[in-house]
Write a structure and sequence with these properties.
The complex is a heterodimer.
Chain A: H1 16-28, E1 32-38, E2 49-50, H2 61-74, E3 79-86, E4 93-101, E5 109-115, E6 121-127
Antiparallel strand pairs in A: 1-2, 1-3, 3-4, 5-6
Chain B: H1 10-14, E1 38-46, H2 52-62, H3 79-82, E2 85-91, E3 99-105, H4 115-122, E4 132-141, H5 144-147, H6 156-164, E5 171-175, H7 184-197, E6 201-203, H8 216-234, E7 239-243, H9 249-261, E8 266-270, H10 275-287, E9 291-295, H11 300-303, E10 309-310, H12 312-322, E11 326-328, H13 340-351, E12 354-355, E13 367-368, E14 376-380, H14 388-395, E15 400-402, H15 405-408, H16 414-433, H17 438-450, H18 454-463
Parallel strand pairs in B: 4-10, 5-6, 5-15, 6-7, 7-8, 8-9, 9-11, 11-14, 14-15
Antiparallel strand pairs in B: 1-3, 1-4, 2-3, 12-13
The chains are: A alpha+beta, B alpha/beta.
Chain lengths: 138, 485
């Protein structure tokens, strides 16, 4: 199973040169770019760990690619994403978010169903990987 | 030469009998609209022999305080204030017999927070007025003081994206087809395949409610099974617009509650339920963290013809006040009506914080939105993956692109169709961001992406060259006036 979160998850994995083009686009738009990582890929896991602060005032995409690679050295079997934050009034949120690193093996998610009154159903989705504690999942 | 705006003495003004509207105070060429006035721009087509200024004054009168004859009871009120004032009448460029009439209304004429009240005046009796052959409401300037009496969209574009964890690209959707006849179980199959293949949303069509072939509860149950399975298969948040449109508010609330209990992120209503019902559902959506999708079923009965009805840009403004999150707004390149400039005007009304006057896109007034949430436009109807570069060029990034036939009609099945659309979209966004001239090079970008994606190659082969090139019936009327120095 391939985790499909992020803007480019249906394309082949991005090379560093390709990551550079997208980061430069964000920087040229005045957005702050940051790197985040996690071993909990649940679609509603909003808060991935921050690999440092968003790189405000950084004019160079190469610096972001460098940080991606530093993060890979330590968390090579985690999900790593690059996100760009736009502080413009009326947006003040993320403008682009794409995955740049994945675990070798992605076991996917389990759907659990609880049958409740009538024919109704309560669903929940759980990553097979998160049965183990944080740091021991992949 | 007297133009009818000269002041009459009170005695002359209020003597019993019939007086021209322009003499009753509904034509004031010197009037400077106040910041708090609502301004309407009408296109009027007077009957032969009717003076356009008198026709404009009549529209002002009939959409505010006037009746056909003088009434003494006006004098018990601050009637000067309550009279709408036509203050400008211009011939429509290249359209003999048609005039643009600007009419200002005092804010006190309207109840706060009620589209029903606003429309009862502005598009009430006046549209059947005999001295006019035709009448069209082209645009409105809504003052901030009035906007602030509405809650606006419950969710808005930014929070919708945060909730769906989807950034940087248009969202993808598909309407389940055939729109009538599928059983709940079969219907859910289409939802599952499309979402698993790569779409963010699927959608009920406007007329799928609760018919003999599929009861609404069945549809909701099977659809949510499909949504959750697809979400697990991809690790993404998925949604399906469950249409809660029904015969009564009570029934709509009941269906919306069931959608909420099943964990749906989005519900849907049709424009035909009416303005008050829409506002009620928007309040419900706000109370329940639900995205509210509006299908504009029925709008073409009054928006399409250039000389009569209500422009869709006005409907879009009303819907932003009423508080829906999604609204269908045209594709430019698809099968339904949509001149590029006019459509851009609609999208700007939905998505911008401030609309400057822009006659070439049909925006007649500067419009501040006072931080009201933005609506996500939805492009649906006859579009396919091969048009991805044009769609992004015309419609931008904050839009739902809905490929119904363009997903379900794929030769290798629904999942393949969805994947083709998603790969085409991501490849085009990537190329745009990387600085490629994607509009010019669109076909090559798609062909390159198709090398890694057989479903995209098949989609491009099947639908290559499918276009809908017909002249639009609704386009802006303006002439570029050279500035005199």
């Amino acid at each position: 199973m391939k985790l499909r979160q992020g803007t480019f998850s249906f394309l082949p994995d991005l090379t560093d040169a390709e990551i550079h083009t997208q980061v430069q686009y964000c920087i040229d738009n005045g957005w702050a770019v940051s790197v985040e990582y996690t071993d909990d890929p649940h679609p509603r896991n909003t808060y991935w760990e921050m690999w440092g602060h968003p790189m405000f005032d950084n004019p160079d995409a190469a610096a972001v690619v460098f940080e991606v690679n530093e993060c890979r050295k330590q968390f090579g079997d985690y999900y790593i994403r690059v996100i760009a934050f736009d502080s413009t009034h009326g947006w003040e949120s993320i403008k682009l978010s794409f995955i740049v690193n994945r675990p070798k093996d992605e076991p996917g998610f389990h759907v659990s169903r609880e049958e409740v009154k009538g024919r109704s159903m309560r669903y929940s989705i759980k990553s097979y990987a998160t049965d183990k504690p944080e740091g021991k999942r992949y | 030469m007297p133009d009818g705006s000269e002041k009459l003495s009170a005695k002359a003004r209020y003597s019993a009998g019939v007086l021209e509207y322009k003499k009753m105070g509904y034509w004031e060429p010197d009037y400077e609209p106040k910041d708090t006035d609502i301004i309407s721009l009408f296109r009027i087509t007077p009957q032969d022999g009717v003076d356009p200024i008198e026709a404009a004054a009549a529209v002002a009168g009939e959409s505010s305080t006037a009746t056909w004859t003088v009434v003494w009871t006006d004098r018990l009120t601050a009637c000067e204030k309550y009279r709408a004032k036509a203050y400008r009448v211009d011939p429509v460029p290249n359209s003999p017999g048609q005039y643009f009439a600007y009419i200002a209304y005092d804010l006190d004429l309207f109840e706060p927070g009620s589209i029903a009240n606003l429309t009862a005046s502005i598009i009430g009796n006046v549209f059947g007025f005999k001295p006019l052959k035709a009448l069209r409401l082209e645009d409105m300037r809504l003052p901030v003081a009035y906007i602030k009496t509405f809650n606006g969209p419950a969710t808005g574009i930014v929070v919708e994206r945060e909730r769906l964890n989807c950034f940087g690209r248009p969202l993808l959707g598909a309407t389940v087809k055939p729109k009538l006849g599928l059983s709940g179980r079969n219907y859910g199959r289409v939802v599952y395949e499309a979402l698993k293949g790569g779409l963010d949303f699927t959608k009920d069509d406007e007329n799928i409610n609760s018919q003999p072939f599929m009861h609404w509860r069945d549809r909701f149950l099977y659809c949510m099974e499909a949504v959750n399975r697809a979400s697990a298969a991809t690790g993404e948040v998925k949604g399906t617009y469950l249409n809660v449109t029904a015969g009564t508010m009570e029934e709509m609330y009941k269906r919306a509650e069931f959608a909420k209990d099943l964990g749906s992120v989005i519900i849907m209503i049709d424009l035909v339920i009416g303005y008050t019902a829409i506002q009620s559902m928007a309040n419900w959506a706000r109370d329940n963290d639900m995205i509210l999708h509006l299908h504009r079923a029925g709008h073409s009965t009054y928006t399409r013809q250039r000389n009569h009805g209500v422009s869709f840009r006005v409907i879009a403004k009303w819907m932003r006040l009423a508080g829906v999150d999604h609204i269908h707004a045209g594709t430019v390149v698809g099968k339904l009506e949509g001149d590029p400039a006019t459509t851009k005007g609609f999208y700007d009304v939905m998505r911008e914080e401030y609309n400057p006057q822009s006659l070439q896109t049909g925006i007649f007034f500067d419009q501040h939105w006072a931080s009201l949430n933005k609506m996500m436009p939805v492009a649906s109807g006859g579009i396919h993956a091969g048009q991805m570069h044009q769609l992004i060029h015309y419609l931008g990034e904050d839009v739902v692109l809905q490929f119904g036939g363009g997903t379900i009609g794929h030769p290798q099945g629904i999942q393949a169709g969805a994947e083709a659309n998603r790969v085409a979209l991501e490849a085009m966004i990537f190329a745009r961001n990387a600085g490629d001239d994607y509009l010019q090079n669109g076909p090559e970008i798609l062909a390159r992406a198709a090398k890694n994606c057989t479903p995209l190659k098949q989609a491009l082969d099947v639908w290559k060259g499918v276009t809908f090139n017909y002249e639009s019936t609704d386009a802006p009327d303006f002439v570029v006036t050279p500035t005199t120095s």
